[in-house]
Amino acid sequence: MSSRGYSDxxxxxxxxxxxxxxxxxxxxxxxxxxxxQKPPYCQGTLTLPxxxxxxxxxxxxxxxxxxxxxxxxxxxxRLEEACDPATFGLGQQDVYDESYRKAGKLDASKFMLRFSPxxxxxxxxxxxxxxxxxxxxxxGPIHTELYKLNVYGPQSFFKSHVDTPRSELxxxxxxxxxxxxxxxxxxxxxxxxxxxxxxxTFDPAALLVQAARPSIAYVAFxxxxxxxxxxxxxxxxxxxxxxxxxxxxxxxxxxxxxPLALSYPTNEGSFRETLRxxxxxxxxxxxxxxxxFALRHQYPLSKVPMSRARGRGARKALQExxxxxxxxxxxxxxxxxxxxxxxxxxIVYEDRGSIYYGLRYVMCxxxxxxxxxxxEDEPLWRYLARAVGGVLLNPFKQNGRLDEAFEDxxxxxxxxxxxxxxxxxxxxxxxxxGNQAEIAYTYWKISLFVRVGSxxxxxxxxxx
Length: 464
Description:
Number of helices: 11
Strand order of the largest sheet: 3-18-14-21-12-10-6
Shape: elongated
Largest sheet: 7 strands, antiparallel
């Protein structure tokens, strides 16, 4: 199942009134709707050999064993009792609060399994489903890192959270659910776009009860997607979680494995054709202009280069995200480059703090910690312009004049995705709740800035 992508476009700071503005809005709406987005996860079941359901666990010299395909309630209760209380991340701290998360956990060093995602073929499935976008694309190798074992007993749950990024290469999480008898405990995934949201439900208990032979259920999803474990009504829900990472190109050399065939339709061709038709239409941006795509997903960036806002590190780190774009984000970037349009990644900040100036958006070529900004006498958008070279988007006129501070540097852009969910604002840059405290990385909302040339001379990308 796939869901429609971007909604109606916001092309400027005011509602379109002229025929040309209305036509442009229709063009951008058409372009946005040509991006068909898949659900941000893949799921399924796998039948395993009987021996692969063996779990060995314990602390110190107290080793225990349980067959998770044929376990008794007493054995699962002992497993739960061997676990530590599961905490969650709130800012820079790990917090234990059973009103938000009630579950048991064992760290990876405290248990052992007989299988891995690679041995089961799950790594190839995940690469195909989550990292490939387009018939000629290949997902590439991934690295799976065993993270934790969790036990959710009766009335256990985990409220909405986002998985903590542990590297700029981390793109997702894999949860494997064993066939231990239980009811409830469904995983609900949520994606928010402004005031709108969409949900998907992964119900492993329902999937596993239908299996003719002992099987595991699995779900892999992008780690920036909000998710929630619903309360377990009865029994014990036993899961293993892996962190998913892209493999750097230099370490992936020599991999000659044949990628799996795509199991879902791609809309790369329709998006490319729609954009090409618009570029060949003299009524579409006849004098040229700038497009802005709000990327669907958020991406982790290291906090180290952000602390050096004037240095090259933060700018380079943002542009390197282009090699790690997910799903339709990668598709849009790829098509822009193929059609010789200059496309670059930007951080767009939102400033709601000024009653006089109203809502403002500032585009920067690097990430900058807004939480580090103290109480300033000047508006945030002026501070960003001065401190990190920020550029005001769509500067509007006051008394017939552009904003004085941005007469030379303001830029007009036409959004091909709604603005509200695509920007970074003070106190909302970082996630609120995670599965552990923040380490050295944090998620950022990123936009794609595309320069389009005038009709007859559309190409803007430099020859490489």
